[in-house]
Amino acid sequence: MKIIMLGAPGAGKGTQAKKIAEKYHIPHISTGDIFRANIKNGTELGMKAKSYMDQGQLVPDDVTIGMLLDRISQEDCAEGYVLDGFPRTIPQAESLTKALEERGESIDYAINVDVPDQAIVTRMAGRRACLACGATYHIVYNAPKKENVCDVCGEGLVLRDDDKPETVQKRLTVYHDQTKPLIDYYGKAGILVTVDGTQDLNKVFEDIVSVLGA
Ligand code: AP5
Ligand code: ZN
């Protein structure tokens, strides 16, 4: 099964993508996580991405598209994957469609996690991330067992650099300008599923499973 997650920054794409990956035994591929891992390891790709990410801007398509297409041609993607944070622009979506078409493949579902902007800002301020393993928490809605410590790997949790309120506002503007048109793009392709992302995160997942099948 090949799945794309759509939705505003902080809508809960990563949270749901991890649950989908676990239930359906497919890899969770987050372009944001790949960029953050590269920043942490000080790679050239990381240096390039950081300047854009810290300003709430998108990393240029020429950097992002090649990286993602490489990742999905790896062996563990043969049975499918859940893409989180890609595509984010029409050129990215078109490149993905074309690359898959060349192999006689296509995306099965584009899941749009719908959350209004007002709710996003509150969520981001409470998000805590583990930069070691990529796990995410929320101080109220999805708290770790021990304050500020990752349940998965035991590392400390941080507020992401781009989760500061002024940067969140910029990311929302970029989302409306460049990413929201993808809802229409996948609607026209007939594979769009919209779920109400303001519900409890387990209820959001139930709604997704009711579409993907148990
Ligand atoms: P990325 O890491 O993809 O960030 P994003 O899309 O802005 O998404 P987030 O990770 O912020 O949010 P999410 O929707 O995954 O929400 P989460 O599940 O964590 O990208 C970061 C940057 O990298 C971009 O700005 C860009 O610069 C660059 N980039 C990445 N991909 C790119 C691309 N393709 N092209 C160009 N540039 C790219 O949930 C948020 C919080 O809410 C958490 O605390 C969570 O616990 C909580 N929560 C989740 N669900 C619920 C719920 N139902 N109720 C209450 N709380 C909830
Ligand atoms: Zn961790």
TrEMBL record:
The subcellular location is: Cytoplasm
* Region feature LID, mapped onto this chain: 126-163
Entries under HAMAP family matching the protein: Adenylate_kinase_Adk (MF_00235)
- Purpose of the protein: Catalyzes the reversible transfer of the terminal phosphate group between ATP and AMP. Plays an important role in cellular energy homeostasis and in adenine nucleotide metabolism.
The residues that the entry says bind ATP are G10, A11, G12, K13, G14, T15, R127, T136, Y137, Q199
**What free text does the record give on domains?**
Consists of three domains, a large central CORE domain and two small peripheral domains, NMPbind and LID, which undergo movements during catalysis. The LID domain closes over the site of phosphoryl transfer upon ATP binding. Assembling and dissambling the active center during each catalytic cycle provides an effective means to prevent ATP hydrolysis. Some bacteria have evolved a zinc-coordinating structure that stabilizes the LID domain.
**Which organism's genome codes for this protein?**
Brotaphodocola catenula
Kindly state which keywords UniProt assigns to this record, in alphabetical order.
ATP-binding, Cytoplasm, Kinase, Metal-binding, Nucleotide biosynthesis, Nucleotide-binding, Transferase, Zinc
The record ties this protein, via Pfam families, to: ADK, ADK_lid
Q: What is this protein called?
A: Adenylate kinase
Positions contributing to AMP binding: T31, R36, Q57, L58, V59, G85, F86, P87, R88, Q92, R160, R171
PANTHER family assigned: NUCLEOTIDE KINASE
Give the enzyme's main class according to its UniProt record, as a single word.
transferase
Q: Provide the E.C. number(s) assigned to this enzyme.
A: 2.7.4.3
Annotated region (NMP) at 30-59
Q: Which gene encodes it?
A: adk
